[in-house]
Amino acid sequence: MPEPVLSPMLSPSETSPTEQSPTEQSSATTPPTMLERYRLAASLAPDRLPALMHNRRVEPTWLGEGDAFTYTRQCEDGVEECVLIDPVAGTRAVAPSLAALGVREPDIAAAPAGVLLGPDGRGLRRRDHDLWLLDGDAETRLTSDGEEGFAWGALPSDSNMVVPFRRMGLDLPPVATVHSPSGRRALTMRVDERRMRVKHMVESVAPGGGARPECHEWRLQLEDEGAPPPSECRILDLDSGTAVDVDVTDELGSRVVVNGTSEVTWSADETRLYLLRCAPGDAGAVIVEVDVATGQRRDAVVLDEGPLYEPNQFLYHLPLVRVLPESGEALLFSQRDGWGHLALYDLASGECLHRVTDGDIVVRDILHVDVERREVTFVAGGADDGWHPLWRRVYRAGLDGGTQRLLTPEPADHDVAGPQPQFFHLVFGKGRPPVEPVSPSGRFFVDHVSTVDQPPVIVLRDAEQGGRIVLELERTDVQPLLDAGYVAPRAFRAIADDGVTELWGVIAMPEHPHDAQRIPIVEDVYAGFQIAHAPHAYLGASGMSSRQGNLPAYTALGFAAVMVDGRGTPGRDRAFRQWTHRQGHTSRGLEDHVTAIASLADADPRLDRTRVGAVGHSYGGYNAARLLLRFPDDYRAAVSSAGVHDPAKMRFGAWDWHLGAGPDRASAEYRELGNLHLADRLEGDLLIACGEIDENATVDHSLALARALMDAGKRFDLRIWPGVDHYRIDAYARMTFWDHLVRSLLDERPPRGFAPS
Q1: Which of 201, 289, 546, 616 has most Cβ atoms within 10 angstroms of its Cβ?
Q2: Buried/exposed code over 164-181 (b: 16+ C-beta within 10 A; e: otherwise)
Q3: pLDDT averaged per 10 residues in sequence order, the chain, 757 residues
Q4: pTM of the entire structure?
Q5: Distance in angstroms (rounded) separating the CA atoms of residues 642 and 623
């Protein structure tokens, strides 16, 4: 059969802002009223956009028989079909059901609530603060020293999810607990919260309908309360009931609670295991080998890449670490040469054998390691070809070096979802098994190819044949999205505040501006070190900032909507990435946002630089307020939603990435991380908003900034949402944000006839 050919993708040079112009308002079209704009914006709210795209993602279910898989697709009439793919034969069959395809429904063994199943079918669960082994009908107590606030396998209180979990009635299985491959052993940890002070939140309108407010509490060590007590770690022998303790007072294994099985590697005979020791802000990292029988530790590989070592530039991705105990090697992420590469280390000597990857690239995810073929398949972005540096591309390289091959050559983003931290999947996976885009053999993978303005073409590729396209699986149907009024953003490039460094972002122009010669700008901002905020793929791409979904509403209201990544964000070379490290006394990359917007306005004079607003949530809420306070001549308005404005109110260690491990918390540099000292600089229109039961960016941050502004005699608006946590911005809150921007940037009254639904 003929090989599928992808439609041409635009190159970055074709999406430069100097070559773009906003959509002209037709002289024959009556401009929409403000009420009509609000209704259109509401119809394009983030939660409504996914339903307007058909076949946005292909999530394969591998059948376990070779590399065959099935997936579900959507027809135009909303009916779903089942698709069976045989990658080796290159065939695609479609039918109304799996049974019609001759495929049996997958038998997914679901663990009982609260039980962590092991490979041998035995389970672990928590009871009375201890771990118990479940073997059929028999239950055996494995630990006996657990207690309230110091329980084995318990979720730490500072997970930022205590109240939602309580509301959901979740019976979580033991966390920070990992079985060995045979199921005979398990590593488990516990966090000492006994002496941590209790933090309280009051929910004024109790959801049960009672008159008395509901008080929520959890234990938390704040930044100004000193370091918390160390955790404890234990290796359990589930057959004999014996156990050994492992010294983790230096934060060894601190990420096991989040990353689970991905954080622990066992040798084939299960006599040794390997853990990563690396805390935020550290200059180095260590691969620690632990003797399973005795708990004794040995530093196998010691990395020193000061001033800052990161196991992955992207905070919410898995560490780029793969220990290969049978060959005595470890694959580790390194930025030593200025980029982000994988290097191979010897576990016996600790020496770096050689670099595995090549070029001006930054590795983002490891998809597959084939020990027998000695190859690694990985996702990386880069700048060695002049394309968008954050476009994801898939490579395969030999562990012995010198054989790196690009498997996705088209100039576009290649969305191949990397493995997800176990805790994130536990919370957000809705009970489904993790999506694996790579086949069990590692040969085939599903690739979503798109740009910010060209919808995905979803293909199946053969990694063994240089990424050859085996089949085109789907072309995402976005016509309903376009019919609803969606205006796709365009990528742009700008020069940073240093006059040299290239920045990337997107801009979406209004189809019907209020005044085509004076279009106000709304920047949706994050500007944090955790993620790359500006999208580089089509709406709905995995691993991307969900804030992209807010742009259509802004354009519907008549604003030009912008997202941009300044220096200090991930996915670029080390100098770009770490530019804001140990720069707490500066504005830490926010100058780049000012420069980028000035560049856009210079390229298109219809953009009105005198009417610029910033909107952000969480770390973005912090930086939205910070932009308005630090640059009063450049930003007229800001919406600071769930911002973190006082560094002392954060969980202990939250700012270590910025200042390095063990910062001086009494220093001016530390205090200047926050926004309170900037209160007297406020000149524009600031809206502060927060949910009253937000555990992540607690309401006292917003109230502290409000108090500082009051003390400075400044006018501002404050909204506290009853019963709202960190993870929900509902239609009413969005309307309030629009109201603020419409008043400040358009000098118009919001429509009284609009009611959010």
Answers
A1: 616
A2: beeeeeeebbbbbbbbbe
A3: 41 39 50 96 96 96 92 92 96 96 78 91 96 96 97 92 84 93 97 95 92 94 92 97 97 92 96 96 96 98 95 95 97 97 98 97 97 97 87 97 95 91 71 82 97 98 98 97 96 96 97 96 96 95 84 98 97 95 81 97 97 97 98 98 96 89 83 94 98 96 98 98 94 98 97 92
A4: 0.94
A5: 11
